[in-house]
Structure formats: structure tokens, C-alpha cells
């Protein structure tokens, strides 16, 4: 390695003291883009000509595109305490912020999205700059950051919430998210899978894929907040994602998914309200270059979709070349195997425009083509026949492209979006062919074979052969055979192995005895990340994901899976068990634990989360009596709701804890601690001077570190899609300070923090 050039000149600061080209992170929406004028004549000309906006509404459409996008939050729906969070928001924070005037702007009262079920999604005109800088909104901001980090709230664009809702997910569904990063839609899929919190291991699972290795770790961070044993993150090119196998009734079978989310890479002109540089960079060539890749990804998706399954195709683009053209190409090549579903009644209250059946293609120079026959030979490598609508009127009518849905920004103050729901009625035509004497597995198409050369039409024009730098593997099923299998290439960080334990592993007897695990505890679902040496952490996955992992270890690159349930604590060996419980997996593990449980009251929760290592005598009489009967070591602290006490939380709470010689403590992360305190009526708030609401004051070092940690979390969670560096195990970013002793594990710190006295 050569020595770094120490004479390299530093970037010269600009007028406000920042290096040239650097944007102040505290600037609001549109900061750093002051030189960009929100105007693009080619964009206006193109969409005026295509008539995707109703007559007389184009000016309103353009005005909406120039306005900042409203902030939108979604309450995690599968958590048993979603109603408690919603109640806190409506009765406390929303009332405090409405009608406030900040920097001359009146803050509108947050409103629920009319089409989102159970009032679990809300939007407001608050921008990040106002939210983070106004002292009047500081409490609300701290609430949003901590609840987002603990997985109870997600900041997500409104239109981004639509595709998962249209998938109609049930707990037994096998789901593939093909282009999943940064993970907001993946989180929705996980929530829907866990709609019944009484089932720790739903039969279904989510496999979340992304081609970008670094963005996979952002995806891991999003998924980890939900602590599900039914999610696996993989790293593959979606257009050639491998076909997986699994054991079924003692036989190896091909895995077909019940639901697939195909949210493909796109030009993103529907995101101009938040991605302001799109105004300057937009040309029609973006869509033309992406069209081939979008078809290849969608084709790979429907190939792996089970017969009877649903695939939702979506883009944040308004361009029909990326939208209806892709759907039309899929329907035409499917020869009746696919059908566009009518989703008009699935989201009452959602305003959208039906898909169009006529469009033209324009080059970046402004040249229009209405039909493939008009395209000169010199442009055949860029402009493909699949970019045009079908010329046969009957075939076009049978496609029912009007069932596609295009969301326009000015209709409900959102971003622009396109979504279509496809249902698979039969195997794809190229999957029906199989060698003589062999039949495909019942209900599943066979692996594609080389077609008979006599069947290839001489005048066939391949829609998959668009020459782009992203063209990989997928070839036309008519004019060529599929590529031969290739050895999987690994990119990015080399992950630790996923090693499943056997039922007779010596690690189990002390754990089983200490926690009195029920006989039906699934030992085979427990895994670790090391083949040799002491096992530091134990994780659990669902039975179905274990099946997939064991049968495809050489076929796919797994970034992360499983939820941590136990962490090694060498001090615990003297008490009978070297593994303490981990808060991340407490709701997965608790149905099997029959010992080491202390039932606590609301007042006990307040004591445990506001005092560091309180004496056993600080607990209520009932909890104190239970604690005295237990030996030292890891414990479960369980609150059960009282239906008669409506002022107390009406949902169960399970906390990991430690019973010491004379004291007791809870092991929960800082943000979860804040969450549970809010649930029991304690509001902990730090003002700009570092004063806590109990009147004490932090040191300057504490205050500075904590502010940095909060800002780091806000940057990560409020800027969807921005990459973040994380280690190989997909750990969450750790805040820079804590008030109590910290124990570090693969998913960040667990700590017990004295945050103030109950108010």
C-alpha cells in the first residue's frame, strides 16, 4: 500500500464555512438545490402530448410537482400496541403541534390517509427542517426518532405504501420482494405476515432481495427493527435471481412464491417533489434505457410466481414506457397465463387514473414515433418494439390495461406512482415445454428447455435484446435457450456462515432446564453464526426459512436472517445457564418459556425503566415476592393488561431483565425504553440545554454526544434510500451515548437507563 498524499489540498470552504460542494445537513427540503429551477420544458411537452393528466388539470399537476412533499408516517400495524401508539399520537402530539406557527408557516393538523386501513398512516405539511430545528416541535421530533428506531413508526412516502396493500398477504404466504432496498415496503410485508401476534412463527416468510450489496445492509437495518424470524435478506441481480428449492413431503421441489413485489428500478420522475435534481436530469432516454431491464426483472418474477399467485408491479415513474408498455409486453408473452386484476375496490378513498391504451415514444431530441415501423434502423438498438402499445385492437382490449393505476400528485397531495396487479392463471408458455417422457411437477412448471428450432419464427423480433449495459442473462424464450448455469459470483463483504444446531447439541440441556422450555420448542430452528469456538449469540428462524436455507446455501448469497433470542453471558454459568435472553427475540421466545417470569404492574415498569439497578424492595409487593423466589440470572418481566383499568396500557409487555443478588434491572435499548415509558404515561424529554424533565442537567460532553447520536439516527431514518455503513451482521447504528452500563451485541446496545422520575 502506498502512503497517502499528505499534500492533497483541502476543499476550500464557501461563504457559510462549509467545504465547496458540501450541503449543510440541517438545511431543509430542497437545500443545496437553490440553483435548480423547477422547470423542464421537455418534461412538460412530453406529458402534455401523452395526455396522462385529465384535460384542464395540467397546470394544477405542474404546480403540485413544484411543491415540497408532505411528511408521512406509518404506525407499525402488526405490533400488539399499535393502538396505544395511535392513541398517544392523536391525544398528545398531534394536539400539541396543530395550529402552531413556525417561521411564519402555520402547521396543519396531521390527517390520516383516507385509503390506509385503521388510521395507521398520517401526513402533515411539516418539513424536516421545521421538525428538527423548531424548539416548539422538539418533543414531537424526539418521539418520532425514538419510535422509528424501535420499529413502531416508519417514515415512508404515502404512495410507497400502496403496493403491499394490494398484495392481499396472509400469514401462510411465501413472499419475494425483488428490489427491496431501502426496505420500507419490505417492513410492511413483514407486518402483514405477523398480523396475528399470537402466532410466533407464521408459516409464510419474506425473502427480500437487492442487487446492491451496500444497500442490502440498509435493508437489514429496516427489517431488524421488526424482530421477525420470518425474513431473509439476499443479494442478487433481480433479473437473474436464482430459482430456489425446498423439501416437501420428503422430495425436493422448486420454490414458487404466493406473492411477489416487483418494484423495479425506474427513472423516478414521480419523485420530483423530494428528489429535486430530477428536474434538471430528466430526459426520455432514462425510460428507454431502463425498459429492457424492467421487462427482464418482471419476467423473472412471473416465472417464479405460483399459479394462482399475485405479483404487484410498481414504479415511481409516470412514463408509460416503464409502466403500461412493460405490462403489455408481459401479457402478450404470457399467452393468457397472466391476467391484470381489477384492484379498484381494494383501497377505498384512493384517487387514481386508469391505465392508458395509447402512447408514443419520444427521443431526448424531441423526435416522436407512434409505431415500431416508424423507427429507423439506426435506432433499433435503443428503441424496441415492446415500447409501443399492441397494434391489434382486439388483443389490446383483452389486456384491459385500464386496470393499471396511475397516482397523480395533485389529486391527493402525494408523489407520482404507477401500480398494476397481475394474477397468474397458468404456467408461463416457455415453462410448459419439457423433454419427451418427462412431465413437470404437478401444479409447477418445469425448468425451461431449448425450444424446437422449427418453432422459431423468422420474422420474430426479440423484445429482450435491447442493448444496454445492464443486459444480463435473461434471453428471449422464443429465439434462444436459457443461459447455462454459472457459478455464483460473490460481491461485497463475505458473510459468516449460518449454522443450525442439532437437537442433541450440548448447548440445549442447561437452557431448557433454566427456562423450563416447553416440549414443543423448535430446537432445529436455532442457528448460530460460527462453526468453531464458543457460540456468542443464538438466533431463530421459522421452519420454512430453515428449509430454504438448508437447500440453497450454494445457490444464493444470504446477507442476514433470523432474530437473536439468546446472548452468551459467561457470568451466568455459575447460576446454571450461560445464555441470557435478548430483547429482540423476546416475543418469539416467550410462548415457549415457562419459568423465570415475573409479573409486574405499571408502577413496576416505571421503576425498572427510570432507575438504574433498583433494589428488589422497590418493586410492588406481588413482584417483590415473585423475584425473591428466583435465583440470580436472566428473567422475563411481564406486564399483562387489566381490562378494568382503561388508563393503563391495554396490551401485554415483555421485557428482558436480570435478577441480581439484591437488585433487578431491565435489558432494553434506549429507544425501546422511551417507547415503553410513554406507554405507561411517562414522558422523558431533553431540551436544548441538556436538561431532563426531572430537572437534572447533563454534562456538556453527554449533551453533545447525545445530540450527535440523535442526529445520526434522524439522518438514517428520515432520508429513505440513503446508504449507510453497517457491519457484516447488519447491526443497527449505535447512538453515541447512554446513561447506564451498556452490553454490546450484534444488534446494538442493550442498556438500562435512568431517564428521569415518573411524572
Give an account of the 3D structure.
The chain has 759 residues and is an alpha+beta fold. The protein is built from 21 helices and 31 strands. Strands 7, 8, 9, 12, 13, 14, 15, 18, 19 and 23 form a ten-stranded mixed sheet that branches. A five-stranded antiparallel sheet has the order 20-21-22-24-25. The protein has a four-stranded antiparallel sheet with strand order 4-5-1-6. α5 (138-149) crosses α20, α10 (284-303) runs parallel beside α11 and α18 packs antiparallel against α20 (670-679). It is an enzyme of class 2 (transferase). Residues 61-425 form the SAM-dependent MTase RsmB/NOP-type domain.
Which keywords apply here?
single chain, 759 residues, alpha+beta, 10-stranded mixed β-sheet, 5-stranded antiparallel β-sheet, 21 helices, 31 strands, 26% helix, disordered N terminus
What is the makeup of the main sheet?
10 strands, mixed
Mean pLDDT: 80
Low-pLDDT segments: 1-33, 434-488, 694-759
Helix content: 25-40%
Secondary-structure-derived class: alpha+beta
Q: Strand tally, please?
A: 31
The outline comes out as globular
- Count the DSSP helices: 21
Distance between the termini: 58 Å
Radius of gyration: 28 Å
Strand-residue proportion? 15-25%
Concise synopsis of the structure shown:
The chain is α+β, with helices and mostly antiparallel strands and 759 residues long.
Topology:
Layout: H1 41-50, H2 58-66, E1 71-75, H3 82-97, E2 101-102, E3 105-106, E4 111-112, E5 121-124, H4 128-133, H5 138-149, E6 153-155, H6 162-166, E7 174-177, H7 184-193, E8 205-209, H8 213-224, E9 231-234, E10 245-248, E11 251-254, E12 257-263, H9 278-281, H10 284-303, E13 305-315, H11 324-334, E14 338-340, E15 353-354, E16 361-362, E17 368-369, H12 393-399, E18 405-407, H13 409-412, E19 417-424, H14 429-432, E20 499-500, H15 508-515, E21 526-528, E22 537-540, H16 543-551, E23 558-561, E24 563-568, E25 579-581, H17 586-589, E26 597-600, H18 602-610, H19 621-628, E27 633-639, E28 653-659, E29 664-666, H20 670-679, H21 700-718, E30 742-745, E31 748-751
Parallel strand pairs: 7-8, 7-12, 8-9, 12-13, 26-27
Antiparallel strand pairs: 1-5, 1-6, 2-3, 4-5, 9-23, 10-11, 13-19, 14-19, 15-18, 16-17, 18-19, 20-21, 21-22, 22-24, 24-25, 27-28, 28-29, 30-31
Helix pairs in contact: 5-20, 5-21, 10-11, 18-20
Amino acid at each position: 500500500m502506498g502512503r497517502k498524499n499528505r499534500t492533497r489540498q483541502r476543499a476550500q470552504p464557501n461563504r457559510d464555512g462549509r467545504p465547496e460542494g458540501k450541503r449543510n445537513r440541517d438545511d431543509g427540503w430542497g437545500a443545496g438545490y437553490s440553483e435548480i429551477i423547477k422547470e423542464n420544458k421537455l418534461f412538460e411537452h412530453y406529458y402534455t402530448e401523452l395526455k396522462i393528466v385529465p384535460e384542464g388539470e395540467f397546470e394544477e399537476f405542474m404546480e403540485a410537482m413544484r411543491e415540497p412533499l408532505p411528511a408521512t408516517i406509518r404506525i407499525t400495524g402488526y405490533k400488539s400496541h399499535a393502538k396505544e401508539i395511535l392513541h398517544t399520537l392523536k391525544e398528545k402530539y398531534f394536539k400539541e403541534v396543530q395550529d402552531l406557527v413556525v417561521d411564519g408557516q402555520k402547521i396543519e393538523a396531521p390527517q390520516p390517509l383516507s385509503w390506509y386501513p385503521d388510521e395507521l398512516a398520517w401526513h402533515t405539511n411539516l418539513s424536516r427542517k421545521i421538525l428538527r430545528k423548531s424548539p416548539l416541535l422538539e418533543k414531537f421530533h424526539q418521539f418520532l426518532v425514538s419510535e422509528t428506531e424501535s420499529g413502531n413508526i416508519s417514515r415512508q412516502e404515502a404512495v410507497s405504501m400502496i403496493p403491499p396493500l394490494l398484495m392481499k398477504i396472509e400469514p401462510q404466504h411465501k413472499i419475494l420482494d425483488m428490489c427491496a432496498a431501502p426496505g420500507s415496503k419490505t417492513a410492511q410485508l413483514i407486518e402483514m405476515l405477523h398480523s396475528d401476534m399470537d402466532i410466533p412463527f407464521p408459516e409464510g416468510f419474506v425473502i427480500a432481495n437487492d442487487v446492491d450489496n451496500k444497500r442490502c445492509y440498509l435493508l437489514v437495518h429496516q427489517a431488524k427493527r421488526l424482530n421477525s424470524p420470518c425474513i431473509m435478506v439476499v443479494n442478487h441481480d433481480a433479473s437473474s435471481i436464482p430459482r430456489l428449492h425446498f423439501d416437501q413431503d420428503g422430495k425436493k421441489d422448486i420454490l414458487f412464491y404466493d406473492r411477489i413485489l416487483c418494484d423495479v428500478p425506474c427513472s423516478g420522475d414521480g419523485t420530483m417533489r423530494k428528489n429535486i435534481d430530477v428536474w434538471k436530469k430528466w430526459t426520455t432516454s432514462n425510460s428507454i434505457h431502463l425498459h429492457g431491464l424492467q421487462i427482464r426483472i418482471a419476467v423473472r418474477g412471473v416465472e417464479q410466481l405460483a399459479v394462482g399467485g399475485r405479483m404487484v408491479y410498481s414504479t415511481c415513474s409516470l412514463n408509460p414506457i416503464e409502466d403500461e408498455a412493460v405490462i403489455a409486453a408481459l401479457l402478450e408473452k404470457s399467452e393468457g397465463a397472466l391476467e391484470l386484476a381489477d384492484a379498484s375496490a381494494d383501497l377505498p378513498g384512493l384517487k387514481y387514473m386508469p391505465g392508458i391504451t395509447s402512447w408514443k415514444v419520444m427521443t431526448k431530441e424531441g423526435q416522436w414515433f407512434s409505431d415500431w415501423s416508424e423507427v429507423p434502423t439506426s435506432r433499433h438498438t435503443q428503441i424496441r418494439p415492446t415500447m409501443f402499445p399492441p397494434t391489434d385492437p382486439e388483443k389490446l382490449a383483452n389486456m384491459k390495461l385500464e386496470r393499471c393505476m396511475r397516482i397523480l400528485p395533485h389529486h391527493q397531495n402525494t408523489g407520482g406512482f404507477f401500480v398494476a396487479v397481475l394474477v397468474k392463471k397458468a404456467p408461463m408458455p416457455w415453462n410448459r415445454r419439457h423433454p419427451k417422457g418427462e412431465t413437470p411437477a404437478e401444479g409447477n412448471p418445469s425448468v425451461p428447455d431449448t425450444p424446437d428450432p422449427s418453432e422459431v419464427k423468422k420474422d420474430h423480433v426479440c423484445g429482450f435484446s435491447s442493448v444496454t449495459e445492464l443486459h444480463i442473462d435473461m434471453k428471449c424464450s422464443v429465439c434462444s435457450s436459457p443461459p447455462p448455469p454459472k457459478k455464483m459470483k460473490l460481491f461485497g463483504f463475505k458473510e459468516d456462515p449460518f449454522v443450525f444446531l442439532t437437537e442433541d447439541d450440548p448447548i440445549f440441556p442447561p437452557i431448557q432446564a433454566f427456562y423450563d422450555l416447553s416440549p414443543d420448542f423448535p430446537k432445529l430452528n436455532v442457528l448460530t453464526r460460527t462453526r468453531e469456538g464458543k457460540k456468542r449469540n443464538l438466533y431463530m428462524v421459522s421452519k420454512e426459512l430453515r428449509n430454504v436455507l438448508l437447500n440453497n446455501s450454494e445457490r444464493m448469497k444470504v446477507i442476514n436472517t433470523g432474530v437473536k433470542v439468546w446472548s452468551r453471558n459467561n457470568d451466568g454459568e455459575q447460576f446454571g445457564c450461560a445464555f441470557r435472553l435478548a430483547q429482540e427475540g423476546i416475543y418469539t421466545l416467550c410462548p415457549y418459556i415457562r419459568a423465570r417470569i415475573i409479573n409486574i404492574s405499571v408502577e413496576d415498569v416505571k421503576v425498572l425503566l427510570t432507575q438504574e439497578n433498583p433494589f428488589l424492595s422497590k418493586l410492588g409487593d406481588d413482584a417483590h415476592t415473585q423475584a425473591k423466589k428466583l435465583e440470580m440470572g436472566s428473567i422475563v418481566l411481564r406486564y399483562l393488561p387489566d381490562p378494568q383499568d382503561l388508563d393503563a396500557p391495554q396490551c401485554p409487555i415483555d421485557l428482558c431483565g436480570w435478577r441480581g443478588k439484591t437488585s433487578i434491572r431491565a435489558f432494553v435499548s434506549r429507544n425501546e425504553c422511551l417507547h415503553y415509558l410513554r406507554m405507561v404515561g411517562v414522558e422523558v424529554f431533553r431540551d436544548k440545554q441538556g436538561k431532563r424533565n426531572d430537572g437534572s442537567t447533563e454534562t456538556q460532553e453527554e449533551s453533545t454526544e447525545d445530540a450527535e447520536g440523535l442526529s445520526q439516527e434522524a439522518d438514517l431514518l428520515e432520508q429513505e434510500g440513503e446508504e449507510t455503513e453497517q457491519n457484516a451482521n447488519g447491526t443497527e447504528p449505535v447512538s453515541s451515548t447512554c446513561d447506564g452500563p451498556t452490553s454490546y451485541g450484534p444488534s446494538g446496545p442493550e442498556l438500562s437507563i435512568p431517564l428521569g422520575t415518573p411524572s
